[in-house]
Design brief:
single chain; mainly alpha; two-stranded antiparallel sheet; 21 helices; elongated
């Protein structure tokens, strides 16, 4: 036909080559044009062959799907799905939970699943999206969510907001604790005194710890003039003076033990001012004196003379516990032996003396019990020729004791 493409055999001369190239281009154009005409004819034929009713039905289906998409596009995911997405670090959207009911259901789901990140994220969303009274009504019945929010706010140093929130939730004790922490966190001693006084008068009325705050104020006012003078001693932990009453007692007992009561440095005056018990006072002073190896002071604080020249503990001191404290402070055996004699129960004294390695006390108790077999066994457990071994061996061989075995 006239549209057929014919290639003639020609010699590869320069002129014939150009003619061949031109012919190839012309043929390519013809092929492309025929393909386009066939495609248009095929599409036209396909459209014309479709049933108009079917096309309209398909159009309606597409429209319904589009409308459904627009309706569901802004609907929130199920609460479980959202919480799981938060837990797994997947994308999630909280802004779609518009109604109060949906917000509460989402928070309850997070609380039930127990994930802290989800609880906090949802609680923060609720706080942003609700007015304050409604927000309080939500978290006041969900204390775990409130705790997560409070801890989050504390880490961000939003102390004033935390205190307000705690008061609104009726947690007055915790509000006082947070306010105390805020008042003592920064500033010099004079600044802390001023803040604590303001706290005491403004927020601590009727608070169960109000007396502790007043004691802290009294302590700071007492040690304030001492701090500047003590700062010259680089080897002393001067900060202990203002940290607590017991720490201040330990400091003064370490460096100013025995100072008269009419002096600001007096441990006795501090004890009297803050009404410390005998146990509290002795505990602080004994540890302080032991730290500077003042063993005679430790003895006088803990024990006194008993009946028949014996030894007894002073006051309500736990003498067994104090013996352990002195042992840990590398107390010499002579002092430790004296302290152990104040332990009333022989069996307790024996057990503790063995534990602390005070051989003389162990031997003396076994002699008092007339238990030669036990004493022989104890002697043999000691290093031969050691001080304890020599003492035990001497008692076994020389003492005039009527042994029971």
């Amino acid at each position: 036909t006239s549209d057929d493409v014919v290639f003639e055999d020609t010699l590869a001369t320069s002129g014939s080559t150009r003619a061949l190239e031109a012919r190839v281009k012309e043929v390519a154009k013809q092929i492309a044009a025929e393909g386009k005409e066939q495609e248009q004819a095929s599409l036209s034929t396909q459209v014309e062959s479709r049933d108009p009713m079917k096309l309209e039905a398909e159009l309606k289906t597409v429209r319904r799907k589009l409308e459904s998409f627009h309706v569901t596009k802004y609907q929130p995911d199920p609460a479980v799905t959202t919480v799981q997405n938060i837990m797994l670090g997947k994308p999630f959207c909280l802004e779609r939970y518009k109604s109060l009911k949906k917000k509460e259901d989402l928070l309850d789901c997070a609380l039930e699943m127990g994930d802290g990140d989800a609880i906090l994220a949802i609680t923060l969303m609720i706080r942003r999206s609700l007015n304050h009274p409604k927000f309080l009504s939500v978290i006041s019945s969900r204390p775990l969510a409130a705790n997560h929010l409070i801890n989050y706010m504390i880490t961000r140093h939003e102390m004033n907001q935390v205190i307000d929130l705690l008061h609104a939730l009726g947690r007055f004790h915790y509000a006082g604790v947070v306010a105390y922490r805020q008042a003592t966190a920064r500033g010099g001693i004079d600044d802390r005194i001023r803040k604590l006084k303001k706290l005491y008068h403004a927020q601590m009325s009727g608070h169960e710890d109000s007396n502790l705050v007043l004691e802290q104020i009294n302590l700071l006012e007492r040690v304030s003039p001492l701090l500047a003078a003590e700062s010259q001693f680089a080897d002393r932990q001067v900060s202990n003076l203002s940290s607590s009453v017991l720490q201040a007692l330990g400091y003064l007992s370490t460096w100013y033990y025995g100072t008269p009561e009419n002096n600001l440095y007096s441990p006795s005056a501090l004890i009297k001012m803050h009404k410390l018990t005998r146990t509290q006072a002795n505990w602080g002073m004994v540890r302080a004196r032991a730290s500077v190896l003042a063993w005679k002071d430790c003895e006088s604080l803990l024990v006194g003379k008993g009946w028949m020249g014996g030894v007894k503990a002073k006051g309500e001191v736990d003498i067994m516990e104090m013996a352990t404290v002195l042992h840990d402070a590398k107390c010499p055996p002579e002092t430790l032996s004296l302290i152990l004699q104040a332990v009333e129960s022989p069996s307790d004294r024996l057990d503790l003396a063995k534990k602390l390695g005070v051989a003389k006390v162990v031997v003396d108790v076994m002699v008092a019990q007339k238990d030669r077999v036990a004493l022989l066994g104890y002697r043999d457990s000691l290093t031969r020729s050691s001080e304890g071994w020599v003492y035990a061996d001497h008692v076994i061989n020389k003492a005039n004791v009527k042994w029971k075995n």
